[in-house]
């Protein structure tokens, strides 16, 4: 079974075709990158996968199930976690609270218990807090749990965002420009972290990324979008040498430049 199958997905905004007849499949356990120039349709493509938009044409399957037209909530329940291009943390909440917010769909307390804070509700809160702490420990942020999210260094904010997505126990994680704004050391740590998620948790990862060093090092396969269409797909080696990709995106110096 594939983690993700996209069949001929198209999304239009008025006369603009933001995603144009894109098909691709992502295997379970793969790290798959989507690259392309600004405005190529990458974020719109993610928005189709997460139910923010419904494709005008085409189908989307997650782990063999047709989820075309599902709401973002239902897609999340199918095991898809996501981070955004612009960090979307609750800056005025603590690190721990940010994780707890991410977990809310997994906390199942009947309304009555939640409102009257019965022992059941308190037990459930305690359990959620323990789980959140374990998650923070796993990503190396437990020592920051009581700090406000906005006070974390940039690289750690990105990590916290990923941790919050992990709170939903995703099988598929979509990362929109996770290395944006990171320095080389932070990017290297991010690479190791993403690989760890795949290896230890078995999560399939799809990322949009402009940092070609990271993309070429981390990806099993890469798809390239231009003007909404997929113009290439292959291993980093194949993509690096593809004349059309070099022309559209990587530039002439790229073949040797992104080792
Ligand atoms: N909600 C919208 N309404 C109208 N046009 C949109 C909308 N969202 C995106 N677009 C247009 O669709 C095209 C694809 O945009 P998208 O943001 O998906 O590209 P991108 O590859 O993610 O770009 P970047 O790398 O700059 O983030 C662009 O021309 C954009 O202006």
From TrEMBL:
Keywords: ATP-binding, Nucleotide-binding, Transport. PROSITE patterns: ABC_TRANSPORTER_2. It holds the Pfam family BCA_ABC_TP_C. It comes from the Bacteria. One of its GO terms (molecular function) is ATP binding. InterPro entries: AAA+_ATPase (IPR003593), ABC_AA/LPS_Transport (IPR051120), ABC_transporter-like_ATP-bd (IPR003439), BCA_ABC_TP_C (IPR032823), P-loop_NTPase (IPR027417). This is ABC transporter ATP-binding protein. Transmembrane segments: none annotated. Residues 4-252 form the ABC transporter domain.
């Amino acid at each position: 079974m594939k983690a993700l199958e996209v069949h001929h997905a198209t999304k239009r905004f008025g006369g603009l075709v933001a995603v144009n007849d894109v098909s691709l499949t992502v295997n379970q356990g793969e790290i798959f990158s989507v690259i392309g120039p600004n405005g190529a349709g990458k974020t719109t493509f993610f928005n189709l996968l997460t139910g923010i938009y419904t494709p005008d044409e085409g189908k989307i399957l997650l782990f063999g199930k047709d989820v075309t037209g599902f709401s973002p909530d239902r897609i999340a329940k199918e095991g898809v976690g996501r981070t955004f291009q612009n960090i979307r943390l609750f800056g005025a909440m603590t690190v721990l609270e940010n994780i707890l917010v991410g977990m809310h769909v997994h906390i199942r307390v009947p309304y009555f218990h939640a409102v009257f804070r019965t022992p059941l509700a308190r037990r459930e809160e305690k359990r959620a807090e323990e789980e959140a702490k374990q998650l923070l420990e796993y990503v190396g942020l437990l020592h920051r749990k009581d700090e406000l999210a906005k006070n974390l260094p940039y690289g750690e904010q990105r990590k916290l965002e990923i941790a919050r997505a992990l709170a939903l126990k995703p099988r598929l994680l979509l990362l929109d420009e996770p290395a944006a704004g990171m320095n080389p050391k932070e990017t290297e740590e991010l690479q190791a972290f993403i690989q760890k998620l795949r290896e230890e948790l078995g999560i399939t990862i799809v990322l949009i990324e402009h940092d070609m060093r990271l993309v070429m090092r981390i990806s099993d396969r890469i798809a390239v979008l231009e003007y909404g269409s997929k113009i290439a797909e292959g291993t980093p080696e194949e993509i690096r040498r593809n004349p059309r990709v070099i022309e559209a995106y990587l530039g002439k110096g790229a073949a040797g430049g992104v080792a």
